[in-house]
Amino acid sequence: MSGGQQYTDEEVVRRVLEGEIALYEVLIRRHNQRLYRTIRAIAGDDDAEDVMQEAYLLAYRRLSQFRGESAFLTWLTRIAIRQALARKRRLQGKLEQLETEQEMTSRPDDHTSGPEKQTFNVELRRILESAIDEMPIRYRSVLILRDVEGLSTTETAKCLRMTPDATKVTLHRARRRLRGLVTQQIGGTVKELFPFHATRCNTVTDAVLQEILPRAS
């Protein structure tokens, strides 16, 4: 859908609240990559799409509560983080027991498609993703938002409800975990980590729209 791409997030929110519910698709497609990376850092890849759908539906139901005090994406990311943490607690108990996720790190990389990446970049990305997956959730979340998504310290702190100082310390410690080759080559290739390909984007988008569009009438 391209009809609403010229609007800011806040304009889309306003129009959705005024009755143009189909425009909610713009927000979903615009922010799927960010939400996927953020949720994956907390809940893992297996549950990411389900949590994304939950987060989008909850955000839609609470859209009238968005006051514009922070960016819409920050508001949405907070909802996604809460949903991801809730899913993690429901499935595996206390978060403190989840600092290593052996199931995730033992899984083959099944979301890299065909010849779209050069062999070196694919392998480097695999190494980076594996290293990040082995980190504690707190480290992973800060690293993804700061180094992968490029958020500022202030934005990251707001999303994770941390202080800026705690965010800086956590990021420093997370980066130290990425030692050797991973640390040296974290620059350009990190932007391609955890891609959320079109088919998965469509799956999440369609599932959310099926829930909200019938209510337009």
Please explain how this structure is put together.
The chain is mainly alpha-helical and about 220 residues long. The protein has one domain: RNA polymerase sigma factor, region 2, helix turn helix motif (Rna Polymerase Sigma Factor, Chain: A), CATH 1.10.1740. Helices cover about 65% and strands about 0% of the residues. It is built from eleven helices and no strands. The chain has helices at about 10-15, 25-45, 45-60, 70-90, 100-105, 120-135, 135-150, 155-160, 165-175, 180-185, 200-210. α8 (about 155-160) packs across α9 (about 165-175). It is globular. The model is unreliable at about 95-115 (pLDDT under 50).
Summarize the structure.
This protein is an all-alpha fold and 217 residues long.
Q: Key features?
A:
globular, 217 residues, Rna Polymerase Sigma Factor, Chain: A, 0% strand, mainly alpha
Could you outline the blueprint of secondary structure elements for this entry?
Elements: H1 9-17, H2 24-43, H3 45-61, H4 72-92, H5 102-106, H6 119-133, H7 137-148, H8 153-160, H9 164-177, H10 180-184, H11 198-212
Helix pairs in contact: 2-3, 2-4, 2-7, 2-11, 3-4, 3-11, 4-8, 7-8, 7-9, 8-9
